[in-house]
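Researcher: Structure prediction, please.
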Amino acid sequence: MNGLDPLFAPRAIAVLGASPVAGKLGAAMTESLSGFPGTVMKVNAGRPDPERGFHPTVAAAVAAHGVTPDLVISCVPAAVTAAALREAATAGARAALVCAGGFAESGAGGAVHQEAVAAVVRDTGLRVLGPNTSGFFAPHARLTASFVPGVADLAPGPVAVVAASGGVNHALAFALAETGVGIRLGVGLGNSLDVTQADVLSHLAGDDGVRAVALHVETAVDGHRLTKAVRRLVDRVPVVALVVGRSDIGDFARSHTGALATSWRVTRAALRQAGAVLVDDERELVDAVAALGLVRLPGHPGAGVGLVTAQAGPGLLLTDALRTRGVSVPPLVERTVKEIGELLPAGLTYQRNPVDTGRPSPVLTQVVERVSEDPGIQVTGVYALLEPTAVDVADALTSAHPKTPVVAVVGGPAEAARKARLRLGKAGIPAAATPAAGAAMLRALVEDASVRARLDASAVTPPGALPLTLTGPVDEHTAKGVLAELGIRTPARRVCPDWEAAHTALDELGGPVVVKILDARVLHKTEVGGVHVGITTHDQLDAALARMPVSPAVLVEQMAPSGPELIMGVRRDPVFGPVVALGAGGTAAEILGDVSLRLAPLSADEADSMLDDLATRDLFQGARGAAPVDRARLAHALLALSSLAADDTVAECEINPLRVLPDGDVVALDAVLLLRDELARSDQGGSDDA
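Model: Predicted structure follows.
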């Protein structure tokens, strides 16, 4: 047995706190294990009754049964959990599920109990799932380590659920069951004291029975291990991720999981970069893994969807839902249109994509086949209401021989439509009940194909770190010098210790110029009146210098031509490490959230794709007559910042704004470079940064 097998594939189990009293947690857990084919031992230290099978210790249970439990399930109170687990580990147990609450999620007192359990893990090597979880289940192994009613009835299948919350784990499993999708493994992590998302994902990477994974994330403990586990897993099976935390739910999340969350945006960006398909809610998560559990497209950037609809209105809803999310629904080539025209009545149907058949018809099978054969189509979606007198939709689709996978959306009387969808699912055709659900399925298939194509093209060359010998606060001139060494364009400028030097700089640079306060302690110069622009004469320069706050020096800098502006930066996330950001200039990044994020180090492909993530991307690609950005130069700047993050002395660097010049190049108009040792001193109260 290796890894987490003692937890998820035990040969024998002991229940700590097993009880004969109905309604007790220990009684419910023992009952849930009634179908387990291995040995189940009952341990009750407070009320042992060996004649009825309740033993005072795990060691006594081992002696009575003649077998050592791989797994113990703890249903005892938090205050005595650590001692019970230590005794179990001494008796030979290798893994534990801790169901009880009252640990770190409950406050300082509970945190003491959780630390006591953590000490047992460190001392004994016992693998612990929880605490504060309703458990896990593996229907194929007839293992139901959960006290939630109805779990034992879940059918085995190809989808694994890895959820931060035990409640979400069960909710997703039941929702999947409603769609006819069975479960391979369902895990609720609880407080993740020991076993984390990364651990479970790594375990699933070696399970050939898994075909898709639903990942629910509230917090991430070790970002590097998590993304590495996702990346390894998606080489074999798709991962669909739902990240909680779009709104500010910090206090609630802390009370729920006993941990602090990193940024919602960073977590999503990290998982996407690792290869996960992202969804926005639990319904979309269910639809996505239901489809990916049956079908996976070959890697393809921007796979095209062909749509066949037997009712125009719902078909338009499906089309709109896909195109709104950036999924390609391309026009069919003329040959395909001609072939479809020979099957459908002229003038009564639309035949370009989507293809509208008018109503379910006996030619539905042939139309689906013709659409699937179009060179621009990689997956085909079909919408139909049940009209048995016209055609049996399930028969029409299961008898077809399409060149692409098919996703069906079937509506009609509830029970009849449900049976039709189940028939399709058993035939390997994902089937949804609504256009929104069908669009979620199709989008997941397309995004997974696109992600895998991107991963194949995203080899990262380890950056050569620029050797920095900087100490103390770094002013703007020095920061720009670092950027220039990295190949990022900066304006011509002069450091001026006095007024005379400033006037000389104006003569050398020529107007117009910008005059700025040069003080590393002042990060927001405009707010203190430390920036004056458009200066062309010496009189204007004198007036600007007179209004300047007192500082050691000023920076006189050549003004750049007008153009669209971006924000670019790199910072260290406490969970995921260095993160590169690109956003729209001005207030768009902050107010609209128009920001693209990637973990460093970046690949050239990732750097090039960041602009495409922005809602305002058209502004930087020539919209309204503006100069389009040179994407190669922008990608170079992003890669340069990514390489800067390789230097452990750098805490963060921000270029704001990064202006697009008429020649398409980008220039750093302002730059902030913060060092880690300086931030550490600031955190200790040793800095008076403005």
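Model: The first helix runs from residue 5 to 8.
Researcher: Thanks, that helps.
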